[in-house]
């Protein structure tokens, strides 16, 4: 009987004993998944959040998600035709390693159909609060006047974040209109914090399918859908009587 590709040993050098055990476990898990599941999808993660990843794992209990440790996962798959654990899987491993230069990515091992996975991914997106370094997809402007959504004790915090505020009869008030961010701005930590306080989630947590591997057809690239849907309006005016 010919020797299985999955029996190949992977060398991990310059690794502590504890780290070696963890990495070897990941490699063995990847190899086991190659036996248990019919398809492997390469996924790009947009605006990743740990809580959302936990939700995904719960939603896909019948499948297996791998995020992070990309170099170790690639070792488990095999980075060349000589070291790969299944025919043609090294193409997926290399595509995954190349994509890490552009952003985060992961793998979804599943027995669900290709059509089902693609339809799910295309319809899955969750609004999230933007973080520092995020490029604002739209402008957000606050008009002059009271901000009744905030407790009076928050006035020093808002002023420290750069907002022109004062307390007037116990109500936080903007003494002039204030533009929180301009479309195309790379958000600072202060801008991101203000947007969160205003309950304005501008980021979208989304998964893009970049490719799929099957034992029958090998690795095929998939056309990634657009990351975000831009707002048609150039600027968002936050009403004074909103419920944020």
Automatic annotation (TrEMBL):
GO BP annotations listed: nuclear-transcribed mRNA catabolic process; ribosomal large subunit assembly; rRNA processing
Domain Large ribosomal subunit protein uL10-like insertion: 130-199
Keyword DNA-binding: no
Membrane-spanning intervals of the chain: none
UniProt xrefs under InterPro entries: Mrt4, Ribosomal_uL10, Ribosomal_uL10-like_insert, Ribosomal_uL10-like_insert_sf, Ribosomal_uL10-like_sf, Ribosome_Assembly_uL10
Subcellular location: Cytoplasm; Nucleus, Nucleolus
GO terms of molecular function: RNA binding
CDD domains, A to Z: Ribosomal_P0_like (cd05796)
Keywords for this protein: Cytoplasm, Nucleus, Ribosome biogenesis
GO cellular component terms attached to this protein's record: cytoplasm; nucleolus; preribosome, large subunit precursor
UniProt-annotated stretches for the region Disordered: 225-244
One Pfam family it belongs to: RL10P_insert
Family: Belongs to the universal ribosomal protein uL10 family.
Complexes and interactors: Associates with the pre-60S ribosomal particle.
Name of the featured protein: Ribosome assembly factor mrt4
């Amino acid at each position: 009987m010919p020797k299985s590709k999955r029996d190949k040993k992977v060398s991990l050098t310059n690794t502590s004993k504890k780290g070696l055990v963890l990495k070897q476990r990941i490699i063995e898990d990847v190899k086991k998944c190659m036996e248990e599941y019919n398809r492997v999808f390469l996924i790009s993660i947009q605006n990743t959040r740990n809580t959302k990843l936990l939700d995904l794992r719960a939603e896909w209990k019948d499948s297996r998600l791998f995020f992070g440790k990309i170099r170790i996962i690639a070792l488990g798959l095999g980075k060349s035709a000589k070291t790969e654990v299944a025919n043609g899987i090294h193409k997926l491993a290399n595509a995954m390693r190349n994509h890490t230069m552009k952003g985060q990515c992961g793998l979804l091992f599943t027995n669900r159909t290709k059509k089902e996975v693609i339809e799910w991914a295309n319809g899955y997106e969750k609004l999230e609060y933007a973080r520092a370094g995020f490029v604002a997809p739209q402008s957000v402007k606050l008009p002059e006047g009271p901000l009744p959504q905030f407790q009076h004790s928050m006035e020093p915090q808002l002023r420290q974040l750069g907002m022109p505020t004062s307390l007037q009869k116990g109500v936080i008030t903007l003494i002039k209109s204030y533009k929180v961010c301009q479309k195309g701005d790379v958000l600072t930590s202060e801008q991101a914090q203000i947007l969160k306080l205003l309950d304005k989630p501008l980021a979208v947590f989304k998964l893009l399918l970049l490719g799929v591997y099957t034992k029958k057809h090998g690795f095929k690239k998939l056309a990634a859908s657009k990351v975000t849907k831009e707002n048609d309006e150039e600027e968002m005016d936050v009403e004074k009587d909103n419920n944020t």
